[in-house]
TrEMBL record, chain B:
The keyword ATP-binding applies. It is a peripheral membrane protein. Keywords: Antibiotic resistance, ATP-binding, Nucleotide-binding, Transport. CDD domains: ABC_subfamily_A. Residues 9-244 form the ABC transporter domain. It is found in: Cell membrane. It holds the Pfam family ABC_tran. GO terms for biological process: response to antibiotic. PANTHER family: ABC TRANSPORTER ATP-BINDING PROTEIN, DOXORUBICIN RESISTANCE ATP-BINDING PROTEIN DRRA. The keyword Transferase does not apply. GO terms for cellular component: plasma membrane. GO terms for molecular function: ATP binding; ATP hydrolysis activity. This is ABC transporter ATP-binding protein.
Amino acid sequence: MMRGVVDPGDNPSAHAVVSGSAVLVVAFVALNLLAQYFGKLRHTGGLDHYATLPVPPASVVLGTAAAYASFTVPGVFVTAAAGSWMFDLPMGRLWILLAVIPLAGAALAGLGAALGLLAPRQELATLAGQLGMSAALLLGVLPASRLPVPVQWLRDLLPSSYGVDAFALTFAPQPDWARVLLDLGVCGAVGLGSLTLATWAYRRAAR
Amino acid sequence: MSKAPQGCCTVSGLVKTYRAGGTEVRANDGIDLAVRRGEIFGLLGPNGAGKSTLVRQLTGLLRPDAGSIDLLGHDIVRHPERAARLLGYLGQESTALDELTVALAAETTGRLRGLTRRQARTETVDVITELGLEPLAHRPLAKLSGGQRRLACFAATLVGDRPLLVLDEPTTGMDPVARRAVWSAVDRRRAERGTTVLLVTHNVIEAETVLDRVAVVDGGKVIACDTPGGLKALVDGHVRLDLVWRHDAPTEVPAVAALADRAERTGRRWTLRTTPDEARELVAAVTTGPAFAALDDFTLATPTLEDAYLRLGGRHGGLAR
């Protein structure tokens, strides 16, 4: 769809569209589906199953998040490869996705799980997950430089943006690896925070 | 440590209150129980009696407001997380396992109970064979019927041996074959490993056939605790007469008119609890003349646990037969 709007070749818009679309796959599964899954589990009493097994809450959240994030691997690579081909971008550095998926996945999955576990009603968990995904779509796929300043702040708050930026930077002929690492670092730190939040939300919900 | 060496689960003075719509509900109001090791112990009562609240406290899911719970020598009020190592719990919901196949649900649960991959696999195959689930082993739980899904969850509960099984209405929706498989599996574990079973039910027939002892729960209290036979002895010397009328009861017949105030009525069915002598006279009266013409069906039966429950003052009448 964006092929008609954005010019192919080495330009920031094409970088943003391809990296944003690839990370959107992670957002769909990790944020949207996980929020729905945990929302359903909490509101139907399904959490009792895990709460009566000798496993720490963090393992349940991490295990589920990792399982959901791993489902996204093929989709992310296919999207990134197809996007790179359509926009004439180099494919030599797609390996960076092996770092982007787990880090952005952790950040978004933690957020998704927390939304699902904290929502007072199952429908609200679904709604929150879908809103989160819409945010990841709009703020991830549109080039940051073209967004109004307040929207850019919103973009900075969304953990997946750092994954998008890290991936987008690698399309440059001479990537700024220090910035890539910094973005991935922020993603990882937010991931740690959001998984901690999700674990706390799980403990609260399972009680 | 445990006060009673032969005890599996000792509960005393358990109180749990929660708020619902601005009013305070005492779901458990001073419950005392002692379940022995190797016993199949039942909690019988209508919906809303407080059975599930009690079970959620025993399994460490809910913290009581007051009282103590001892599971095999462990204080579950102070250390609720220990319950997960002592018991296998079958709750009423399967949503946590719905996306997995039957075999994977059982194996994963076993792994989470601390089994190695190999042990979990072996136990899963054994349990699936034992319960006759082979044809369904590779189908996701969400695609199964209610009774099949229940049996699959029961299979997951059995993988990873536990000294205590807590089963919340395990046979809901199951066909007779599946029910039999559940009770044989329970019996086998008790005979071979001395497993204790705490069963929540509102089905009186099931309670009479499988339980060693039963606690009757109503209004958040244990109103009686005995063997099914012992409870039925409370209503010994009584029989139950059910009369089902074709249309309206023929109250112009004096014998029927005399029953009108005493009978418990459910639609066209009248139920009476009385002595065998009087029952005989009543049967004679309603099986002749105009009363017989109006009668669709009648049954005369010895008392069940439901009769004992009503005699004890059970108020809700929500038990299933």
